Amino acid sequence: MKDDYTPRIHETLATGVYVEHPPDMPELVYMHDPAEFVFTDFTRNRPAIITADVSIDAAMSKMKTVGVHLLLVVDDAAVVIGQITASDILGDVPVRLAQTTGKAHSEIMVDMIMTPQKDITVVEWSHIKNAKIGHIVATMHALECCHLPVVENGRIRGLFSARSISWHLDHDVSENTMCAHSLAEIVQTLS
């Protein structure tokens, strides 16, 4: 069957039309700045995802390639079933799992060490869309978390990352620094 595609109504470009784009976010931010300055918004950026049946070595490789420290774990329908972080992969859980199961590190799959969906703490977009960076830092510090996903209408809208916040606030957060410690240092500067 042949589709009947007719041309859409068109016109010439009017004078004074500008290009629409999201605002440029500042490189250096302050606690009183809007939280959106340090928010990874999945309506503008593709989320980093992986399936549960992939090895943790492949997950780590993807994190390095994409430049993130957290992957959302999804099923075949793109429903979030968990999350995995670089700390999960580089921590002692895979080592203990390899010792107890006799599996090689390369045989450990994402679903064996990921944080399951039921254990992921999130905040609702409506509660933070007008928040300041200081509110997010205080929330993440209280929850002792390094990543804070934000949900809206049954979907993950985006997330906050302690590493990203620290970098934008010009705090030194090296690969070996636990984000909870860096958040605690940031919270101390609020006092």
Could you write a compact summary of the structure shown?
The chain has 191 residues and is α/β, with parallel strands linked by helices. It has one domain (35-190): CBS-domain (Roll).
Question: What features would you highlight for this structure?
Answer:
191 residues; alpha/beta; CBS-domain; 4-stranded mixed sheet; 8 helices; 8 strands; globular
Description:
The protein is α/β, with parallel strands linked by helices and 191 residues long. It has one domain: CBS-domain. The chain is built from eight helices and eight strands. The strands form two sheets. It has a four-stranded mixed beta sheet with strand order 1-8-7-6. Strand 7 and strand 8 form a beta hairpin. Helix 6 packs across helix 8. The protein is globular. The chain starts with 38 loop residues before the first strand and ends with a helix.
Number of strands: 8
Structural class: alpha/beta
Largest sheet: 4 strands, mixed
Q: Compute the average pLDDT.
A: 87
Distance between the termini: 70 Å
Looking at the structure, what is the overall shape? globular
Radius of gyration, in angstroms, nearest whole number? 20 Å
Number of folding domains? 1
CATH architecture type:
Roll
Low-pLDDT runs? 172-178
* CATH T-level fold name: CBS-domain
Indicate the proportion of strand residues: 15-25%
Helix count equals: 8
CATH class value: Alpha Beta
Strand order of the largest sheet: 1-8-7-6
Order of helices and strands: EEHEEHHHEEHHEEHH
What is the helix content? 25-40%
